[in-house]
Amino acid sequence: MNSNRYAAEIPKIGFGTYGRLGEAGIASILTALETGYRHLDTAQTYGSEPCVGEAVRRSALHRDEVFITTKISTDNLAEGKLVPSLRRSLDDIGVDRVDMCLIHWPAPNGQIPLATYMHQLVETQSLGLTRLIGVSNFTIALLQEAKKLIGEGLIAANQIELNPLFLNNKIARYCLENDILVTCYQPIAQGRVSGHPVLAPIARRHDATEEQIAIAYELAKGYAAIPTSGQAARIRSNFAATALRLTPQELAAIDGILPGARSINPDWGPAWD
Ligand SMILES: NC(=O)c1ccc[n+]([C@@H]2O[C@H](COP(=O)([O-])OP(=O)(O)OC[C@H]3O[C@@H](n4cnc5c(N)ncnc54)[C@H](OP(=O)(O)O)[C@@H]3O)[C@@H](O)[C@H]2O)c1
Q1: Is residue 29 classed exposed, middle or buried when 0-12, 13-18 and 19+ CB atoms within 10 A define those classes?
Q2: What is the mean pLDDT of residues 177-198?
Q3: Residue 189 CA: which ligand 1 atom is closest?
Q4: Which residues pair with 183 in a beta bridge?
Q5: Nearest CA to 167 among 260, 241, 264?
Q6: Please, are residues 170 and 273 in contact by the beta-carbon 8 Å criterion?
Q7: Nearest to 187 by CA among 2, 8, 12
Q8: Which atom of ligand 1 is nearest to the CA of 191?
Q9: 266 CB less than 6 Å from ligand 1?
Q10: 86 has a pLDDT exceeding 60
């Protein structure tokens, strides 16, 4: 089980907001909050930051009851750009600070030195613009270099593609061993877990869906998961996965699924582990 020092602060089930735009997007995020999600994941590139803020304001919840994560776009990594870009995000969301600010992707083709943007990320925290800082799509080598640059223990999370069809074991293990929370994006493989020969019988045993089994697996491994949907019934059923408890045998069966291909793999991305 994960002993990450931030574990208590970051709600393990979050609601992804990629594609959640306009009034329909706000309605979905509001449904998520009413269902019980207390962690919203947005990004500068999603266009959903204003919808996140609006949904929180329309909900009956106090701002402090919702953990908001945003991510800095690769367009804003150059010297002098990152802090003003986060201030714009805060304006767009309508909050004084976010709970976690992540570097969305390492600089394309490594064209901006890691030091340039990691130091600016640390500055966002010292300025009080975010409570926690972290990264996304980082490899072991990048995490090690980042630790040398900014010191131990500052990176709260690494948001990476991870689901039963793509277990991403090497980086996930490194994060667990180094007190960095793994946040799984595409946690239900965009619905491709449905009908999987290992997941389907487990789902039947629990009277659950394969998507719920995927999320329950990720939570049992000590990861956070941020599924999204534009459909209220799915928003609720994905959340209900938090009540499922898989047996050690079931977890081992999912551990044994042969890895498929990474689904998000830009040619300018890092050399994956
Ligand atoms: N850091 C990064 O680089 C990165 C990359 C990708 C995503 N993310 C984050 O991770 C979040 C989730 O990832 P994702 O949106 O790519 O993938 P996902 O959550 O694995 O899948 C979402 C897709 O699955 C469908 N779906 C949702 N619940 C379902 C269910 N119970 N049964 C069947 N289908 C279901 C949705 O369609 P309907 O809307 O029709 O239900 C949607 O098309 C994003 O919203 C974003 O916040 C981060």
Answers
A1: buried
A2: 97
A3: 20
A4: 159, 224
A5: 260
A6: yes
A7: 12
A8: 34
A9: no
A10: yes
pLDDT digit string (tens) for 7-21? 789 999 999 999 999
H or E stretch at 160: strand 155-161
| 67-72 sheet: strands from edge to edge | 15-16, 39-41, 67-72, 98-103, 130-136, 155-161, 181-185, 224-225
Query: Which ligand 1 atom sits nearest the alpha carbon of residue 19?
Result: 45
* 264's tokens: 């998000």
Q: Which residue, among 221, 225, 89, 90, has the nearest Cα to 159 in the 3D structure?
A: 225
Question: Residue 6 has what pLDDT?
Answer: 76
Domain locations in the chain as residue ranges: 15-255
Output the DSSP codes for 75-87.
GG-STTTHHHHHH
Q: Is the dihedral of CA 56, 57, 58, 61 positive or negative?
A: positive
Rounded-to-integer distance, Cα 125 and Cα 103, Å: 13
C-alpha–C-alpha distance, residues 192 and 165, integer Å: 8
Catalytic annotation, residues: 46
C-beta of 134 in contact with ligand 1 (< 6 A): no
- For ligand 1, the distance from its centroid to the CA atom of residue 50, given in whole angstroms, is 19
Tell me the CATH architecture of domain 15-255.
Alpha-Beta Barrel (3.20)
Number of residues in the chain: 273
Contact present, 68 and 54 (Cβ < 8 Å) = no
* Burial track 125-143 (b if 16+ CB lie within 10 A, e otherwise): beeebbbbbbbbbbbbebb
| Two tokens, residue 12 | 């393990």
pTM: 0.98
